[in-house]
Amino acid sequence: MTTKIVALTDALGNLVRFVLLPGQRCDIIGVPPLIENLAFAGFMADKAFDTNAIIAELDARGARVVISQHPGRASKRRIDAELYKWRHLIENFFCKLKEFKRIAMRSDKTDQSFSAMIYLASAVINSR
After folding, report:
1. Alpha-carbon distance values, 88 to 43, 66, 79, 97, 108 (Å)
2. Average pLDDT over residues 11-31
3. What is the pLDDT of residues 36-72, one digit of tens each?
4. What is the DSSP string of the chain?
5. Domain covering 3-127, topology
6. Residue 82 CA to chain centroid, in angstroms?
7. What is the pLDDT, as a whole number, of residue 92?
8. Are strands 3-9 and 15-22 parallel, antiparallel or unpaired?
């Protein structure tokens, strides 16, 4: 059994929200629950989240969109390359999260206990 973690972090790479998805599901379906009822000035993601629907939603909110573009995109958007370099903070968060063997190995049998472990690990990461 595989599970995807789609996470939203703040500007410092600290966990704000996350959604668990089955391993075979597309990452982009996890975005609407993450950004629902949340105010933010910018959104940074990798090319897995480069869809017209997400970009239109973020533009409607007035958020600055910094999403690496999928190579097959017909209409290219300009992104701030210097700002995009800061995306490593989310990657660092996932690296720190996977230091916890129970999360990396997906040892928990239920989504509820797996979510609880993610919250606990995030609290430990933030306290360092």
Report:
1. 14, 13, 16, 14, 28
2. 90
3. 999 888 899 988 888 889 999 999 999 999 998 888 8
4. --EEEEEEE-TTS-EEEEEEEETTS-GGGGHHHHHTT---SEEEE-GGG--HHHHHHHHHHTPEEEEPPPTT-SS-----HHHHGGGHHHHHHHHHHTTSHHHHTT--SSHHHHHHHHHHHHHHHHH-
5. Nucleotidyltransferase; domain 5 (3.30.420)
6. 19
7. 93
8. antiparallel
Q: How many angstroms separate the CA atoms of 66 and 47, rounded?
A: 10
CA 19 to centroid of chain Cα atoms: 9
Residue 97 dihedral angles phi and psi, to the nearest 5° = -65, -40
Domain residue extents for the chain = 3-127
Q: What is the pLDDT of residues 71-126, one digit of tens each?
A: 888 888 888 888 888 889 889 999 999 999 999 888 888 999 999 999 999 999 99
> Which tokens sit at 34?
């993450």
* Predicted pLDDT of residue 98: 93
